Amino acid sequence: MFQLYYAHAAKARDDILSGLTVAFALVPEAVAFAFVAGVNPLVGLYGAFMMGLVTSLIGGRPGMISGATGSMAVVMVALVAKHGEQYLFATIIVAGLLQMVFGALKFGKYIRIVPLPVMLGFVNGLAIVIFLAQLNHFKVQGADGSAHWLSGMPMALMLGLTALTMAIMYVLPKITRAFPAGLAAIIALTLLVHLAGLHTPLVSSIADIRGGFPSFHIPSVPITLDSLKVILPYAVILAGVGLIESLLTMTVVDEVTNTRGQGNRVSIGQGAANMVNGFFGGMGGCAMIGQTMINVTSGGQRNLSGIVAALSLLAFIMFASGLINLVPVAALVGLMFMVVIQTFEWGSFNLLNKIPREDIFVGMLVTVITIFTDLAIAVVVGVIASALTFAWKQAKHIYVQARDESDGTRIYEVHGPLFFASTHRFGELFKPENDPKDVVVDFAHSRVADHSAIEAIDTLATRYADAGKSLRLRHLSQECRVLLEKAGNLVEVNISEDPHYHVADNSLA
Fold first, then answer.
1. 410 and 333 in one domain?
2. β-sheet bridge partners, residue 445
3. What ranges make up the beta strands (E) of 235-330?
4. Which strand (E) or helix (H) includes residue 162?
5. Which structural domain, as residue segments, surrounds residue 466?
6. If DSSP codes are grouped into helix, strand and coil, which group holds residue 310?
């Protein structure tokens, strides 16, 4: 009994300490993403607090941290610039509702169809994006308003303190895991900088973030068709971006912790959190892979860590906003650099000579698109590229085996799937002018998958008819027989042997 108690106490301690570590990292990012979206910093901080709290309570993926994110902020900026914050809050409510519907319909399982190369590209792309975002902290704004790289002693101090942060986070876990390395590094660097009397640009200068508890309000948006036309497109995009990033982050946590999250529950949790944001003045968000990795590697693998992070963030906003300004930028940069190292799939380099070139291309494509455009676009393009690559490979597998019967009939046994990508090759396999008068095409070892395949069979029937040859088709499903127009009377029906499967065709819808 005592061993069980101490085990639970140790886990709770890990969750609390890792939650505090995450809270420190959440503040500057939430403020930064609020600026990206064009809203007040408090809107970003409230968004991070409510996303973290609600998703940790009902989100279904222990250890995963949600908050205000850059991927959603870049979508919000156009909406806020054109229509203002109130439209943003209304849009976040609708986006949350769409996410909850997605989860209620149990569509979260479809994240499992995302191919591994797309996952690798997503993770590596996000790691690079996080790295590039930290480089801005090594710049200072000049008198002309442009950013310039630090130089001389400020650059040396920034690099040195960043390296010291990373060294603490690397060495401390080898000595003890009783205290999160990230939190230890933040405390040590803060004490060192202020005891040594070091000043800007080494110390953060976050905007005024003092505020109270977020209050309930209904967005001041007219309930009209015109308003819906503005809100709905942005809501669909935000819901999609948020779900893709959240569900892929869940998959990454699944691999790191060797556990399995519940995609549908995650979707519902994200949607509920975004709806709460819309009614309480937050900018909404989704899962954050950087903070999630900080949390998981610091020992926070339960929901308590996310709750502590959210409540700590609220405490910073309400009571301790001044303490945040004491944290050196170098400590936060070093913390994020370690996240980059832990997030990037370094093992993907070892796969370069071991996996098909098509998979390498897809992974690199997703990485590049993630860096230069948007996560949702990158994942969708990656899935499409993987599907087309698979279709191209499968198209090469179709072939026929011919044999002649004693009565002179030639039988072609089709092997391999017949679908849109293999129809061209299917047509090349037959030469009506070289065949005898009676020909049978047997589909017992094939699968007619879509309308393109049906058209290919109809076209084949027309070719044999034009050549004055007799063509019969065997072992086609009932659906195929219904859809075949030109070759319908050439199909031999054999109830006991004909296959049963569904053909993807709008005519049957």
1. no
2. 415
3. 286-287
4. helix 152-175
5. 396-508
6. helix
* Domains held by the chain: number: 2
8 Å CB contact between 9 and 191: no
Q: Can you tell me the distance from the alpha carbon of 283 to that of 241, in angstroms, rounded to the nearest whole number?
A: 14
CA distance 139 to 254: 37
> Which amino acid makes up residue 336?
M
Residues 333 and 228 reside in one and the same domain: yes
Instruction: Check residues 207 and 155 and name the one with the higher pLDDT.
Output: 155
Please confirm whether the linkage preceding 201 is cis (ω < 30° from 0): yes
Domain of residue 406, CATH code:
3.30.750.24
Residue 375 domain flag: no
Q: How far is 185 from 183, CA to CA, in rounded Å?
A: 5
Contacts of 380 (CB under 8 A, 6+ apart): none
Cβ-Cβ contacts under 8 Å for 55 (sequence gap 6 or more): 64, 66, 266, 269, 270, 272, 273, 287, 306
Q: Count the helices and strands in the chain (H runs, E runs).
A: 18, 8
Question: Is 326 within a domain?
Answer: yes
In the predicted structure, residue 8 carries a pLDDT above the cut 70: no
Q: Is residue 493 very low, low, confident or very high in pLDDT (cuts 50, 70, 90)?
A: very low
For 61, what's the count of Cα atoms within 13 Å in the CB-facing half-sphere? 37
Are 139 and 37 part of one and the same domain? yes
Grouping H, G, I as helix, E, B as strand and the rest as coil, residue 449 is coil
Residue 171: both structure tokens together: 């060495």
* Residue 372 lies inside a defined structural domain of this protein: no
Q: What is the pLDDT of residues 404-452, one digit of tens each?
A: 998 899 999 999 988 889 999 999 999 999 999 999 999 888 888 888 8
Kindly state whether residue 124 falls inside one of the protein's structural domains.
yes
Residue 498 identity (one-letter amino acid): D
